[in-house]
Amino acid sequence: MAELSPPINTRSQLAAVMRLRWLLFAHSLRTTRGKMELASRILVGIAFAIGGLGGGSALAFGAWYFVSHGKADYLALFLWPMFVFWQVFPVMATAFTNNPDSSDLLRFPLGYRSYFLVRLAYGSMDPATALCSMWLAGMLLGIGFASPTLLPWAALVLLAFALVNLLIMQMVFAWVERWLAQRRTREIMGVLFILLMLSFQLIGPVMEHFDKRSSPEVRRLVELLVPVQGVLPPGLAADAIAQLARARFMVGFSSFLLLCAFGTAIGYFLRLRLRAQYRGENLSEVAARATLRERSSFRMGWKLPGFPPSVAAVFEKEIRYLARSGPMLLTLIMPIFMLVIFRLGPMSRQGSFFARAPNMAFPAAAGYALLILTNLVYNNFGGDAAGIQFFYAAPVRFSQIVLAKNLTHAAILIVEVTFAWTAVAYLYGPPSLDIAAATLAALLFAAPLNFTVGNLLSIYSPKKLDFSTFGRQRASQTTVLVSLGVQVFIVGAGVGAFWLARSYANFWIAAFLMSALAAISLTAYRLVLKRIDRLAMEQRETLVAELCRA
Amino acid sequence: MDLASTISTQGLTRRFGELLAVDGIDLRVAPGQFFGFLGPNGAGKSTTIKMLTGLLAPSSGRIEILGLDLEKNPVKVKQQIGVVPEGMALFERLTGSEFLNFAGRMYGLDRETAAKRASELLDFMQLAEQPKKLVADYSHGMQKKLALAAAVIHGPKVLFLDEPFEGVDAIASGTLKSMLQRMITRGATIFLTSHVLEIVERLCSHVAIIHQGRLVAQGSLEELRAGVEAQAAVLSEDNVVSGSSSISGTSFSGTTAGPPISGEKLTLEQIFLRIVGGSRSAEQELSWLS
Predict the structure, then answer these.
(1) What string of DSSP letters covers A515-529?
(2) Nearest 5 degrees, angle CA A273-CA A277-CA A280?
(3) How far apart are CA B196 and CA A395, in angstroms?
(4) How many cross-chain Cβ pairs, A to B, lie less than 8 Å apart?
(5) Disulfide: which of A510, B89, B182, B287 matches A438 by Cβ 3.0-4.6 Å?
(6) What is the pTM of this model?
């Protein structure tokens, strides 16, 4: 007869989870790629630390100023952006997170309390939390300098504010995870998410719009918003501190209690979700069996004149992948969106750069169109996942596969630049011939250069991606940094050439310079493409291991 | 190298750092054989099949498929083989029909032939009911069938299958088996790895067993059986026999362990366990397990 199982010790379980995370990190350093990732992360971490310390210092000064001048209510002006950043940044920049899926732990006899704590602990390691904690510490320092007696109370309120943020963030993620569990809902969420991101671009035009209107309308809106913000966490936290600074203890305490009530309510919704996860959910991906036999289709593949059938097949596959990827498809509507931004935004305003130099609008718009493509270009095989094995098993040269992928990117770029040209022509009139020639030459320089570096990074630093999701995906840090360097170089070269041409009032100079650079970049592209078969074969283990992992 | 072999390797070796995953194996698979490649977990089966199909570079050694050196003629070899690797190598955001069309064209079929065969294969594999369904939404068994369909769309002379029956239900399994047997009768050579020894015993004419990276047995089922029985006869005299022998064209090296043979015909599972020494008694260990 077996012995009874030993009692479960929550502390040792949490210690085991912490050790698991440490081991995952330590083992990731076994490979050169892992070490490079760490180096890149350290660089990004330094940037974050500078942002955190810089922001913290500025907020310390601001908080000191408001509290010492009896305007502690204005602390809400700091807490609101922080609140928005804390909630939006983790969703936007999942590129910086590397949290293992905590629901994987459910196979173990983990108590619900431990599971809840692990989830919160994972969230607290988010860069947004680290940054906002530094900013809050800065604010606290400023308040302490302005009014030392207020320090303990402010510390308590800001801690509660931090906890509420942490809970909201976790709640949002827990519910989003629920919707992301199935492919269809995941795609809908992806599209909604990108539309949300795009809508942020409209903030500028909306502000412009209100700027031009008479002030009573704006004032009415502000009057409407002030009481609303006052009953939400940032407003409540600011009010709790401000009321105590004015010795209105009861009112200040009420605001604090309301803030805590917010936290409790959010904690309840989070608990609801995590409890369901903890008990086990059925989130099957497989759709119900069709009752009716759908019409079987006999359909031939695409033909790409001038290219081998294998290139046409990969080109077709790439286009189909993009057409089925909500988030990726939305990149195609960016030029249309740019049209709206150009029409309503600050770029159309009198006195703005584009109003003074409308001939620069097309180069800028074309550059923007190219930038949109970088997430595709620098991780060519990311979306192929296990399909990469097919490429290796098929009797096709990798140079043909890569060429087909680059043709897809080029086709998208052409469509986007056409949209951009239309937008610029509509707003500022058609670009002059010399500007159009210089811009196209610049694209001929920038696109092959991006493709060249992108092809190499796609092979040396691949990252598995799911085109249908936006969460839990992390581009390789090496790729992010190198691609940033390439863009800085391209923009620098482009700006330099156009500046020179503008100062001589002759854009054919820019066209000539860019054509010369384009010749170099096209040569580099051809050279790399010739060697891509050998490189791909050398890197096949890295590619297969990274892209085929579950 | 053996000109009569469809698949032959010479000193095929693969190292992963310090680990010697495959240790100088010499395989011979004759044309038209249904060849089962067996071994315990981590023995080197998938590593070997990956090397044979060009998915992994060998550290040393040579591979010849259909008389062509794989390293020197990768494209020519790949044109004539079909592969269902461990991860199935599917493009999940295509429909089954689109994927088969794509596979056909990548293997050099013209557009019309690729489309025609894709349609026939979908019907044969009973995958045609929902043509608009994405591969990502297929069940595991459906994905296996689709992967196999893609591997055969160009009519390969050699088919490499890594665990083709894993996670496949009895109905789908029946469909796959009948298709594979039909290919064998038409002269194709099939090389498969599987943990399901009953299936291998029923389908395969020849078997090789890899253990700790080394090829410890190779030959027809009868030859393996004879080899084990011969060694067991020596075992009954000396209790344990270690060494290597060659019995009627069968290479056989290793240690056989287990009770003496009672006279009944050995199953492949018994042969396998005797060769790889997997007869550890659960009663002797894990006394705390209920």
Answers:
(1) HHHHHHHHHHHHHHH
(2) 140
(3) 31
(4) 140
(5) A510
(6) 0.68
